[in-house]
TrEMBL record:
One of its GO terms (biological process) is proteolysis. Binds 1 zinc ion per subunit. Pfam families: Peptidase_M48 (PF01435). This is Hydrolase. It comes from Arenimonas terrae.
């Protein structure tokens, strides 16, 4: 599922795109079938055509040959072949932007603001490549990445949309812009034009030094190692860095995207795919906790089934998840510690061995110090009892 274009590069959907598509197909099959249906596609096509005719001015190759020539060149370099129409949007705010209005087998590009006057030819070429890359992505895999985008868009329109839906939509849009930025570089056959275009569109400035902006972005990465929190378009510095890494084939670009766009698991910012990760981590934790047969008592198993009604101690024991700072933040560790405390305190007769087992698992998770703090904060254990538990030899703790 990739497109090899003229300079030998592959435009491939990002891992996050595939993860979201897989999640929606598995967990929301009825919604997926609806969003992928021909009826939904035809309705969207009618609405798109009507909106373009109503709210914009249609440019023609005769009146505006330059954007059509650049669009044709960008399509050639991206390996695309489809009729293209370019529109100028009504100017309500004076800002610059562009967007692809997707229709299968047709390219409709909508320009907003003075792009044709402010951007150089190379920058316009990069802009065309960026928007055409959206069309390329939506056309891959029988349109499955478009279907996912459509589902997320409609979900956000629901007042009852959960925070996980909002976060998934935000990240999906951001990863889509990263993919499209790559298309801009391919069309321009250089890194600098799409970076300059990105900054010009965001700031309105007339002249941009791409190398200086990339250096600025690197300095920000040093000062702020956190992950993205904004929407797709304001994250210019992250997108510029992501594009530079991809263009120069930097090692582990996918891992860099994971850390800088998504960041470690955070209980306050779980998207749909991260929820799946946390569920798996919790089930794995239970499998390790109940590896001690002495703790497979009815009250503890009932507590485990409060989390997962189908839980059984016979389920496969998988490797414990990594809880390092690059993978999960304190909120995830606190949550898993709370799960173990709930188990350890479920049966008063097994309280001591259950707590010792929890400490052993905390050792395995390399979160011993944090778990000892949780014993005082959440379980109300006194210092003397915590010290006794912490000083117990490994064999007494059940190792």
């Amino acid at each position: 599922m990739e497109r090899t274009i003229r300079d030998g590069r592959d435009l491939t959907p990002l891992r996050y795109h595939r993860d979201v598509v897989d999640y929606l197909k598995q967990h929301e099959p009825d919604i997926w079938i609806w969003a992928a249906s021909l009826g939904a596609q035809e309705q969207h096509a009618r609405e798109t055509r009507d909106q373009l005719l109503r709210d914009s001015y249609r440019l023609t190759p005769e009146s505006h040959p330059l954007p059509y020539r650049l669009c044709a060149l960008a399509m050639q370099r991206l390996g695309m072949d489809a009729p293209a129409t370019i529109y100028q949007a009504n100017d309500y705010g004076g800002g610059m932007n562009a967007m692809l209005c997707f229709l299968p087998g047709q390219v409709h590009l909508l320009l907003q603001g003075p792009l044709l006057e402010r951007l150089s030819e190379d920058e316009l070429l990069a802009l065309m490549g960026h928007e055409l890359a959206h069309h390329l992505l939506w056309s891959l895999g029988d349109g499955e990445f478009l279907v996912a985008d459509r589902i997320l868009h409609h979900t956000l329109a629901d007042p009852g949309a959960a925070a996980s839906h909002v976060e998934t939509s935000r990240l999906y849009r951001l990863h889509t812009e990263v993919f499209a930025d790559r298309g801009g570089a391919v069309a321009a056959q250089a890194l600098e034009p799409p970076v300059c275009t990105l900054v010009k569109v965001q700031t309105g400035i007339a002249s941009v030094d791409a190398a200086a902006y990339l250096q600025q972005a690197k300095e920000l990465e040093t000062a702020d190692a956190g992950a993205s929190t904004g929407q797709s378009h304001p994250e210019s510095y992250l997108r510029a860095q992501a594009l530079e890494r991809w263009w120069h084939d930097a090692p582990d670009t996918e891992g860099w995207l994971q850390q800088r766009l998504r960041g470690p698991l955070d209980l306050a910012r779980l998207d749909l795919t991260a929820q799946v990760q946390l569920v798996q981590a919790t089930r794995t934790l239970l499998s390790h906790y109940f590896a001690d047969p002495a703790l497979q008592a009815e009250r503890l198993l009932l507590q485990a089934r409060e989390f997962f009604p189908d839980w059984s101690p016979e389920q496969p024991r998988l490797p414990l998840p990594s809880l390092g700072p690059a993978t999960a933040n304190d909120s995830i560790r606190d949550f898993l510690h709370s799960v173990m405390l709930d188990l350890a305190l479920a049966d008063a007769d097994l309280r001591d061995p259950a707590l010792r087992r929890a400490l052993q698992v905390a050792d395995d998770l390399d979160s011993r110090a944090a778990f000892l703090k949780a014993l005082a904060r959440d379980a109300g254990l006194g210092k003397r009892e915590i010290d006794r538990l912490a000083k117990a030899p490994a064999k007494e703790r059940g190792q």
